[in-house]
Design a protein that fits this description.
about 160 residues, 6 helices
Length: about 160
């Protein structure tokens, strides 16, 4: 058992809730479809929304723990000063991509709000679904920055060995 106290990670909780919601919606839909030969109309719309939230919240968790897919071979053979330069370049590249996603995602969410667009399945306002893209992109940027600070200070978490 870990000696560290548990940390409150809203992104991890959000990812967990989204996964539980997807499982519950899908299970309920399968049971109803099996029993009545009909299905719930809202399940696909909510499942896709939860899947997007799960993806972005999980990416924030992965960014905080430095678990994203990347080529580490170069990092291991570089001297410490060069490794820190690579860390900053990785961080900058991530910020550029996520900054673009935040900008265009927030513009899109604002347009959906102004145009009062409704979702095709349930007729809910589309901005409710879209606003999560820029919000969770900012969360990923914050987690990437926290991870960069830890890596530059030499407080990296032990590497995870993945078996293939």
């Amino acid at each position: 058992m870990s000696s560290r106290p548990p940390k409150f990670r809203p992104d991890a909780w959000l990812a967990t809730l989204a996964l539980v919601a997807i499982c519950g919606i899908s299970l309920g839909n399968v049971i109803v479809r099996y029993a009545t030969d009909a299905s719930f109309a809202f399940t696909e719309e909510f499942s896709v929304f939860c899947l997007v939230v799960l993806t972005f919240a999980g990416a924030a968790v992965a960014a905080r723990h430095n678990q994203h897919i990347r080529i580490e071979l170069i990092e291991h053979y570089l001297p410490l000063w060069a490794r820190k330069v690579v860390y900053v370049l990785q961080w900058l590249a991530g910020l550029v991509v996520l900054g673009i996603m935040t900008w265009y995602g927030s513009t899109f969410a604002l347009q959906e709000y102004q145009w009062e667009s409704l979702s095709p399945g349930l007729g809910l306002p589309n901005w409710i679904y879209v606003v999560w893209l820029p919000l969770l992109s900012v969360a990923i940027m914050i987690r990437m920055t926290q991870s960069l600070i830890d890596r530059l200070r030499g407080r990296e978490a032990p590497e995870v060995v993945h078996e293939s």
